[in-house]
Amino acid sequence: MRHSVVITLLYVVLVVPAGLPQTTTSAPAARGDARSALQKLHGRAVGLLSSAAENMSAQDPEAITQDLTGAAAVIDEMLKLVVPAQGKPMVKAETAAKLTVLRDELRALVPQPLKASLTFRLPACVAVLDEVVKEAKPAGPRLDFQGSYTEAKVAEEAVGGHASAMAPPVRQVSAGEDVGAGETLPFELVSRPVLPEKSFCGGKTKDHILESGGSGVALLDYDGDGKLDVYTVSAYEFGPKRERIPHRNALYRNLGGWKFQDVSKTAGVDAAVWGNGVCAGDYDDDGRLDLYVTNLGPNFLFRNNGNGTFTDVAVQVGVEAGQWSSGCAFFDAEGDGDLDLYVARYMNITWDEVAKAERTHTWRGGPKVMLGPVGLPGSADLFFENRGDGTFAESTDAHGLTDAAKSYGFAVVPTDYDDDGWTDLFVANDSNPNFLYHNDGKGRFESVALLAGVAVNAEGRAQAGMGADAGDYDGDGALDFALTTFAHDTVTIYRNVGHGQFEDASQASGVAARTYVPMEWGTLFFDADADGDLDLFLAQGHIYPQVDDPEHKGLEESYGQKNQLLLNEAGKYRDVSERAGDGMQVVESSRGLAAGDLDDDGDVDLVITNIDAAPTVLENRSRQAAHWAAFRLTKPGKNRFAIGARVTLTAGGRSQIREVRSGGSYLSQSDLRVHFGLGDHAGPVDVEVALPGQGRWRFKALPVDRLSVLELEADKQR
């Protein structure tokens, strides 16, 4: 990670307009005193952090503890100055959020001072402190905002807008440039219009930010017949007078042969509220997959009754949450076999605010668009601990997962990024630093995103994080992250360089040059061509339908967009969307994305949700023979679907990694079975499975070109 780059402002470039008098307005005396105090606190904090770095080199735990504790306390005083209980904040909300994250991460290092040097990076800490002081300086000439958004009254606190880049990448690669004339790919993605129920998200003009997020999709075998079923989520539609028109969620039972039966009503999951996301897990250990659905308002936990029906038990078991919930994931935080639940939340809003919303911001000098998110009230994420008796206790703070910044959370990715045997958490935040929570092995988490290098990108800039996934894209045995972002910004690849550290590899991987203009949401690493390399799929679509208006043609943007497929060739990506089949020519404003083998033919298919439209279903058809192996994990007792397992396959001297994961992508749930492409390797494969807190299993000489069931029994551990 490059820490020497000056941290830039998120949304706008400040320039002095031509002809404006070069005068300065004096700040009130009290504000001047606050800035003076802030400068002194900055100096104290930098001094303590520098001392901590020296003491880490000397391996002096008592001194390290004293320095880190002192620095966190000083930063806490800085926060009180820049975000006073009364009065106007001295810095932007996203800058205060960075400072809050830094304070919390320093506090998290205190209990284990001798390990602090593994994640502590002095330049990154100082860069955040410098940004706060720089932004809190007295105002110079009256300034106008320019860039992606324009703001009419710059004297007021900025409200609205998503983080977007200040400039495009050095080189942009247009669609079609990466594929040769007449090139034929070894596969194609064919559109299958088999799921008719539309997913809605508000009115046609999208006046409130609530109408921008769309909804997710889950792929799961809810009835245990071995076939992958589909569950889609919908919100309300708004009529001409902003009246709410309910539309239901839909459960489709897979009958085989690309035929699906809508069983939503009989199954009892045809809820018609403002739905957002979905994840799956067997929370009560009865051997049946349950569904957790996030909403605006109380969430649902649909308990699988085992007879084709579900019952909502969210209130009874204590996981109804509330406000605007978004991403979610089940995972075993403590390694006790009980599936806990993390729920990301975005914003605290009322129906009255949604009904009366007006479009008052200007996008790229063109149309008036919705407000948000910056400046609007966020909602804190929640963690629910599974008590082991079928109920949950909200214990966010007790587990070190406090979301003090209320950072507009979206995607939740449980993953063991450092391969220490415990499930960690990555959370994509919109226009705020991302979260990375490291599991200490006892179910308590440390916030390490800033120190690990995944809170912001290489420019030191928080992006509008939407979707996220984890996978080993470069084949080095370490799990990397992909983060989708706003229009006129690039998808970010955080490459795992070991020792808990990441670097921004967006440029080096070729992703930045191919993802600048579109707006991306759901994302997944998956092996489209079964060659053993993880390719990258991006679900895309704008949030501003006004960009389609004829008078804004010069923006060269569109509300509906084609999705994107980046093919991995030895760790470098190229855009093959134009040659990847008719399914890649579908134009919608897409959001959720889930992957799984819907037709059990050995390759990975995709389902994408669309705003105010039916889902896009993409059948993956192989044009040439390639070998593969897939595995369904099962375990007696607790956590029967082995959620959180790390599966390593070795074949022909090469290893690949997959995880059995709840949640991820964007508000969605992919197949819990793991799939590996093997290329031309036709021989047997070896597999190792590690499950947090439960043990490790090894399976030798397993056959390929089939789905195998791996039973994780206690007496078979290695």
What does this structure look like?
With 718 residues, the protein is α+β, with helices and mostly antiparallel strands. Helices cover 14% and strands 31% of the residues. It has eight helices and 44 strands. The strands form 13 sheets. A four-stranded antiparallel beta sheet has the order 4-37-36-35, with no helix packed on it. It has a four-stranded antiparallel beta sheet with strand order 5-6-9-10. Strands 11-12-13-14 form a four-stranded antiparallel beta sheet, with no helix packed on it. β21 (409-415) and β22 form a beta hairpin. α1 (29-58) packs antiparallel against α2, α1 packs antiparallel against α4 (122-135) and α2 (61-82) runs antiparallel to α3. The longest helix has 30 residues, at 29-58. It is globular. The two termini are 37 Å apart. The model is unreliable at 1-29 and 139-158 (pLDDT under 50).
